[in-house]
Amino acid sequence: MTAALKEYDLIVLGGGPAGIVGAGTAAIRGKSIAVIDSGEELGGAGIITGTVPSKTLRETALTLSGARSRDLYGVDLSLRREATIADLMRHQQHVQASFSGWVERQLKNSGADIFSGTAEFVDSHTVRVRMNRQPRGGRYHEGETVDFRGTHILIATGSSPARPPNVDFDSGVIVDSDSVLHLRRLPKSMAVIGAGTIGCEYACVFAELHTHVHVIDGRSHALTFLDAEISDILMRVMKQNGIVFHWGERVTSYEPQGSDGVKLTLSSGATLRVETALVAAGRKSNTEGLKAELAGIKLGERGLITVDQHYRTEVPHIYAAGDVIGAPALASTGIEQARRAMRHAFSGGPQTAIPSLLPTGVYTIPEIGMVGKTEDELIREGTRYVAGRACAAESARGRIIGEKDGMLKLLFDRADMKLLGAHAIGEQATELVHIGLIAMLAGATAEIFDEACFNIPTLGHLYKTATLDAIRSRVAEPD
User: Fold this and answer.
1) Exposed/middle/buried for residue 233 (C-beta within 10 Å: 0-12, 13-18, 19+)
2) % of the chain beyond a pLDDT of 90
3) Residue 256: is the preceding peptide bond cis (ω within 30°)?
4) Residue 468: how many other CB atoms lie within 10 Å
5) DSSP letters of 343-357?
6) Minimal CA–CA distance to 51: which of 26, 13, 84, 18?
7) What is the pLDDT of residues 413-468, one digit of tens each?
8) Of 441, 447, 444, which Cα lies nearest the Cα of 464?
């Protein structure tokens, strides 16, 4: 039985970062809003299965392994016991639950109605929802269907791991980037299939916890979007931490071996036996079952939704934001996309585009932050540039914290010394890169860092050191 039609100014499909911010942006403008999410808790991949959980696990692994203390002279604070999955998950679950609860309270305080259920389109303005067991709205029973009519609709259903066919994910020994969070014990050996961002991040976390990690990828290098010098440092450190890379290889078969783990056959004919295999084969948009075609929306490869510069689909009153529209598929960009989409929908704010300069954070060990051009990009474009470098180990702060691999690399236009790219690796690299981001958004040149006074000891002071290195290089090699 379908309940009476409910009408709203905005229906938001998905309770992840994009959906939450989209709803909040509309609420500020006094709009009536229904947020519909299929999960038991709000948060999506950003809070429940991806960004927050994986980064929380990373911090826990660094603490349990004593990684941040092991390079301090005469100090060894490493825990003298084997970490368990319970150790890893306790803090992650606390962070996830508290964050999800906070999000739900914020939405309710804004006046949004929140419902737990599975949605599908009936037409371009109507969404039919099959309610879950404990609906957040508290008005409907499990299995009851309710039709919602929205003047505007925001699709923010996110993404989920792509699962190759003929792989037995029910075996318990083969996991993806969602189900890896539910491992019952810490494996002694693991194969990570895919050397992308997610694969490398989890490889680093498990290697830090003394799991013997193999990374298998059909390419010849990992994270090719990074500046090559930064990528080379990461690969060197990962190998030093015991990670074994199998380049130019594909997994042709997965054979669960019960309590003995899984046997992998590679394209070269080699075999590999590990306790757990983590398949990091990319992600797909969560649009399956949405019946988007009934709303007049055509889905692309892996379920992606195409949008214009205002994040409208081909149906003008239906918007989409976040992972569901594809790259860059970051929580930060999804939030900004949803904010601008709802500004456009309700004409309540400046119609500005998202800046083309977007920072990237890779939470490997060591972590990486980057913004702007890489050296390879500048070479391909024919841009004459000068590079400046500062090693954290040569700074006061770096010596204090025992940072031996960290580096900041700045790329300037040789002609006017305008900053073109900032690349950091090491402790706090994802924070450090924001200084470069702001400088580039302001169109700053090397002068801003040359003249600025940075606190000492800080990692921020690396900007001054790297800038002076670039200036010296430019003087030493005049035009």
Assistant:
1) buried
2) 63
3) no
4) 15
5) HHHHT-S--PPPPS-
6) 18
7) 999 999 999 999 999 999 999 999 999 999 999 999 999 999 999 999 999 999 99
8) 447
Q: What are the distances in angstroms from CA 405 to CA 50, 67, 233, 369? A: 27, 13, 7, 14
Strand extents, DSSP E, 337-418? 360-362, 368-372, 385-391, 407-413
Instruction: List, in sequence order, every residue forming a beta bridge with 369; answer none if it has no partner.
Output: 361, 424
CB environment 192-229: b (16+ within 10 A), e (fewer): bbbbbbbbbbbbbbbbbbebbbbbbbeeeebbeebbeb
In single-letter form, the type of residue at position 93 comes to: Q
Structure tokens of 373? 């051009």
Q: Which residues pair with 244 in a beta bridge?
A: 214
155 contact partners, CB below 8 Å, separation of at least 6: 13, 14, 287, 290, 292, 305, 313, 318, 319, 320, 321, 324
Which residue blocks in 249-307 are alpha helix, DSSP H? none
Q: Where are the alpha helices (DSSP H) in 66-147?
A: 85-109
CB-based contact 118:13 (threshold 8 Å) = no
Task: Write the CB contacts of 84 (distance below 8 Å, at least 6 apart in sequence).
Answer: 185, 186
Residue corresponding to tokens 């002068």: 447
pLDDT tens string 91-121: 666 666 666 666 777 777 778 888 989 999 9
Identify the residue with better confidence: 277 or 66.
Answer: 277
How many angstroms separate the CA atoms of 72 and 60, rounded?
A: 19
Which helix (H) or strand (E) is 278 found in, with range? strand 276-279
Give the list of residues 6+ apart from residue 174 with CB closer than 8 angstroms, or none. 167, 168, 254, 256, 262, 276, 277, 279
Most distant pair of Cα atoms in the chain: their distance? 79
Distance in angstroms (rounded) separating the CA atoms of residues 17 and 25: 12
Strand duo 33-37 + 2-13: pairing: parallel
* CB-CB contact of 182 with 86 (8 Å): no
